[in-house]
Amino acid sequence: MTDLATKPSHPPTRRPGRRSYGTALTHTVLLVGGVVMVMPLLYQLMMSLSSNAEVQSVPPSLWPERLQWHNYADVFSTINFGHQLYISILITVIRVIAQVLLASLSGYAFARMRFRGNGVLLAIVLSVMMIPPQIYLISQYQLIHQLGWLNTVMGIVTPGLATAFGTFLMRQFFLGLPDELEEAARLDGANPFQIFSRIMMPLARNGMFALGIMTTMWSWNELLWPLVITTDDTVRPLSVGIANLQGQYESEYPLMMAASLMAIAPILILFIVFQKRVIAGVARTGIK
Question: Are residues 108 and 240 in the same domain?
């Protein structure tokens, strides 16, 4: 009785000073990390408003003497920015729709359906993720050449319609959904396609958003493949157009920086609008 009476009824609380110190340290680390992440973008903005001589000066000037706003207008007279922006949007939209649809179907099959060879097929699919894409670049080029799709949007789009990463991501997401939903739908007489399209796909929308955003960023920034199979500027995306601003003897770095900022603006806006869904989708797949 004596021991019970002497024991404290509540666990000891942390000292307010220690908690505020930890919070301040966390905020400081986050602030430093944020500044480090934003610094390249701010430096790029400064370069886009400088003259070419200021950009190439040694040591480089951190702030231009006079802001060169006309660099942004000069981009449109130097490259066909509007048309190449349209090509980039077209390629990205086709790839996102195909990726989300095909990866959802294959991911659902690997996660929820039991068939012979499931594990072997999944291992083969995942092994593709370990192969650098440069290894099968020549074979892809030969295939597209035999199909007659060189210098076409179809030739650029085709290799990115389905990826092993998309299948893996959606499989992980479908694994996290409860089995009871499928069993209840099956008892109600739903067939596998109805279960997939009416029950599982709506529940997997966060994972589909995450895959869509990742595919958008990858397709938007892709440079090597369009550069290899195209020589006609009318079918080249914006990434190739910006790369062509780098000349053999002299490069217009301010125009390159201005065009790059205008090119990343749509992706940045898209990510800001859907960032909650993207983070939720990636976090959900990372749990399982």
Answer: yes
Query: What CA dihedral angle connects 75, 80, 85 and 91, to 10 degrees?
Result: -140
Comparing 32-36, 84-88, 181-185, the range with the smallest average pLDDT is: 181-185
Domain count of the chain?
2
The Cα–Cα gap between 190 and 187 comes to 7
204/206 Cα distance (integer angstroms): 6
Q: Check if the beta carbon of residue 285 is closer than 8 Å to that of residue 214.
A: no
pTM: 0.80
> How far apart (Å, rounded) are the C-alpha atoms in residues 157 and 90?
9
193 in Cβ contact with 270 (< 8 Å): no
Number of neighbouring beta carbons within 10 Å of residue 55 = 19
How many helices (H) and strands (E) the chain has is answered by 16, 0
Contact 162, 102 (CB under 8 A): yes
Confidence of residue 2 (pLDDT cuts 50, 70, 90): very low
Using CB atoms within 10 Å of the CB of residue 198, give its burial: 0 to 12 exposed, 13 to 18 middle, 19+ buried. Answer: exposed
Q: Cα 51 to the chain's mean position, in Å?
A: 32
Asked whether residue 94 is domain-assigned, the answer is yes
**What CATH number does the domain containing 153 carry?**
1.10.3720.10
For 195-215, how does the pLDDT look when each residue is reduced to its tens digit (9 = 90+)? 888 888 888 888 888 888 889
Instruction: Judge if 39 and 142 occupy the same domain.
Output: no
Domain hosting residue 60, numbered range: 27-67
